[in-house]
Specification:
2% of the residues lie in helices and 50% in strands. With 695 residues, the protein is mainly beta. Strands 47, 48, 49, 50, 51, 52, 53, 54, 55 and 56 form a 10-stranded antiparallel beta sheet that branches. The protein has a 5-stranded mixed beta sheet with strand order 12-18-17-14-15, with no helix packed on it. The longest helix is centred in the C-terminal third of the chain and has 7 residues.
Length: 695
């Protein structure tokens, strides 16, 4: 409701009252107009029906009048209908006039008014609204329509997908967006779209409004990626070992069969074994497996939306394995390889070869088998082919008896070699044994040019072969005298016709003294050491060291070396054979990662370790390097790696370098440990090296 006034003239004024009613359906406003005039004089009249009139919105109405009092006088009414614009807005200019029909000092000839009125906007197109949207779940679209007769058509657009949600919808609609819309956002868990609402009155389109929404892909079993894993042992062994994981021989192949859902792709793969080793990639092969027993592997994948598959778990069993070996027969302490009589009894003059030994090998779940083999040769000859004593099977592990087809000459010595070979393809260390000539008190060699005492003379030329210990009381002279005892310390005395020369080994000091014209009272010091008085043939002895003045001697290597075996026999060996005999060659020891989550165990880049054992020395050496992926606390002990055999009897100190003050040791259990003396931040390369004495 409102009123419009004219300007005052001679105390007269015009007023137009209006009320508004609206039709939402028709998008129209109806205005009821009433026109009033204010009589400011108290008396005025014009009864000429052709002179006095008023005009409302241009419509003229003649209105004779007689006014006898001051106040507002109703002239007349009019109804006006106004159509609104398409958006519901509307304006109208209201105008009116009054003509008195004359002019006087008290009455104006006319009054008029005009004013534009802005009408209340009629609601038209419905503005939709929507809450949080989760694909696959129902959500309500609110439609606050301006009229209960309005209906709506709802459509959506989501990336490259679009469609109709509903037609003829009323004041709301429950919409379940399909999970298939997730195909539009394969690399994200949420995306934006638009809902468009067309409002109709009957078949007439009133208007169109839209609203944007964010749709979330739910992280559940319907949308998570799936993953299955296949474990396969990788090795180069025979088909008998197919499907088996064997310590020191097999690797682990991990293959994922994974897929994303609704357009998602697999971005990362992860598989973690219980020892802490983690493998990434759709198909990956581990290093050689060294830890035995049942192992658990947990695995999952992550897709391009960041969704992770349900963590799976599976197990595999690593069977223990060690190389085969030739060992003593059960209940005995030594492997026997000797001369024997026909019954297998020990006989110094026996012509039969008797062997007593056992093959030791790993079962590998009953799949492995092993053979025991031998070959022999005459001293100075070449070895024949290998003969199987125990066939390749999983039983009959012991052999004791004479070797069929082998006859030993009493005048010759022999070498016998034994080895064990299993189906894994590993051969044991070859063990070699000497079979000496038969025992005899005195033997005259061929052509009477050689003599054997305690055994046969099997050498050629003028020589004496003595198989027994030789004891000489008194002086033994060669050209000149050689005396072997002096106050319990053996010495050699030689006179060249001018000077007495002496050479003595001193038991108390372990040193050798040499010099001319030896005088015990003056040449020995308090420790029983003797000064060397000069050179002998350009060479001299100083303490425990032998030094040559001939430069040409340096760099020479012997083709063969004379050695003494456990039976007291001297024979020749090449340097490589001597290394094998004396077990000087190092043996690789398994060394496994034991650092847990404190260090990175990515082999070849951030973790590595080697360990070797020298059997002849009883000493082990190791080298380990790791990278700590977490900060290390001062005073705390951290495990790094572990060896499993030839362990130290007690803690042994190791060297460590990492740019921080850190100490290291190896325990009697074989655990390599470090202890920072100061805090060590994450990311240091830590190098550990050292040696230990086996317990």
């Amino acid at each position: 409701m409102g009123s419009i006034y004219s300007e005052k003239s001679k105390k007269w004024q015009l007023r137009l009252d209006y009320t508004v009613s609206q039709s939402v359906t028709d998008n129209k406003s109806t205005l009821a107009l009433t026109l009033y005039v204010y009589d400011g004089s108290g008396y005025s009249q014009n009864e000429n029906k052709n002179q006095a009139y008023y005009k409302i919105q241009g419509t003229i109405t003649y209105n004779p009048y007689t006014y006898t009092s001051i106040g507002w006088k109703k002239l007349g009414s009019e109804t006006v209908t106004v159509s609104h614009d398409a958006d519901g807005s509307g304006k109208v200019t209201l105008s009116a006039e009054w003509h008195s029909g004359f002019t006087s000092d008290y009455t104006p000839s006319s009054l008029s008014l005009s004013e534009e009125v802005t009408l209340k906007t009629i609601p038209r197109a419905t503005q939709p609204s929507i809450g949080a949207v989760t694909l696959g779940n129902a959500v309500t679209i609110s439609l606050p329509r301006a009229s209960s007769s309005f209906t709506h058509t709802l459509t959506y657009a989501f990336k490259d997908a679009s469609g109709t949600i509903a037609t003829g919808a009323g004041k709301s609609y429950s919409w379940t967006p399909s999970l298939t819309l997730a195909n539009q956002i394969p690399d994200a868990s949420r995306g934006t779209g638009t809902i468009t609402c067309k409002t109709y009155s009957g078949s007439t389109l009133i208007g169109t409004k839209s609203v944007s929404f964010t749709a979330t892909v739910p992280n559940n079993s319907s949308t998570k990626p799936t993953d299955k894993i296949t474990l396969t042992p990788v090795h180069s062994l025979s088909s008998a070992f197919n499907g088996l994981y064997i310590q020191g021989k097999s690797k682990l192949n991990i293959t994922h069969t994974a897929s994303g859902k609704y357009g998602a792709t697999i971005s990362t793969y992860k598989a973690t074994v219980t020892d802490g080793n983690t493998y990434t990639g759709s198909s990956v092969t581990s290093g050689v497996l060294t830890i035995t027993g049942t192992r658990t592997l947990k695995y999952y994948v992550t897709d391009s939306r960041g969704f992770q598959s349900t963590t799976g778990s599976t197990t595999f069993n690593v069977l223990p394995y060690k190389p085969p070996a030739v060992v003593p027969k059960s209940g005995t302490t030594t492997v026997l390889c000797r001369r024997a009589d026909s019954a297998g009894n020990a006989a110094d003059k026996g012509t039969y070869l008797y062997i007593r030994a056992r093959k030791s090998f790993s079962s590998v779940s009953g799949k492995n088998k092993c053979s025991l083999q031998m070959r022999y040769k005459e001293d100075g000859g070449t070895y024949g082919s290998w003969t199987t004593l125990l066939k390749t099977d999983s039983s009959g592990t012991e052999y004791a008896g004479n070797i069929s087809g082998v006859t030993l000459a009493t005048t010759k010595s022999y070498f016998v070699q034994l080895k064990a070979v299993d189906l894994v393809g590993t051969t044991s260390a070859i063990q070699e044994y000497l079979i000496p000539t038969a025992t005899i008190t005195l033997h005259l060699g061929k052509n009477g040019t050689s003599v054997g005492i305690g055994g046969y003379a099997y050498g050629s030329g003028k020589r004496l072969d003595v198989a027994w210990d030789t004891y000489i009381d008194g002086a033994l002279r060669v050209n000149n005298s050689i005396t072997t005892t002096e106050d319990g310390n053996p010495y050699f005395h030689l006179n060249d016709g001018a000077t007495d020369w002496y050479l003595q080994a001193v038991k108390s000091s372990g040193k050798v003294a040499i010099g001319p014209n030896w005088d015990k009272s003056t040449k020995w010091d308090a420790n029983g050491n003797m000064d060397v008085a000069g050179n002998i043939d350009g060479k001299y002895l100083t303490g425990t060291w032998l030094k040559t003045t001939e430069v040409t001697d340096l760099g020479r290597s012997a083709s063969k070396v004379a050695v003494l075996d456990s039976g007291g026999w001297v024979y020749s060996r090449t340097p490589s054979e001597l290394v094998s005999d004396m077990r000087l060659a190092p043996v690789d020891l398994p060394i496994t990662y034991a650092g847990g989550a404190n260090f990175s165990n990515t082999g070849g880049t951030q973790y590595g370790g080697t360990a070797k054992y020298f059997p002849a020395l009883g000493i082990g050496v190791l080298r380990v390097y790791v990278n700590n992926i977490v900060a290390l606390t001062a005073g705390s002990t951290y495990n790094v790696a572990k060896i499993s055999s030839n362990l130290p009897g007690a803690f042994n100190a190791l060297n460590v370098y990492c740019g921080k003050q850190v100490v290291a040791r190896i325990s009697s259990s074989g655990m390599v440990q470090i202890r920072p003396q100061v805090a060590v931040a994450a990311g240091y390369d830590i190098y550990i090296a050292g040696m230990w004495i086996a317990g």
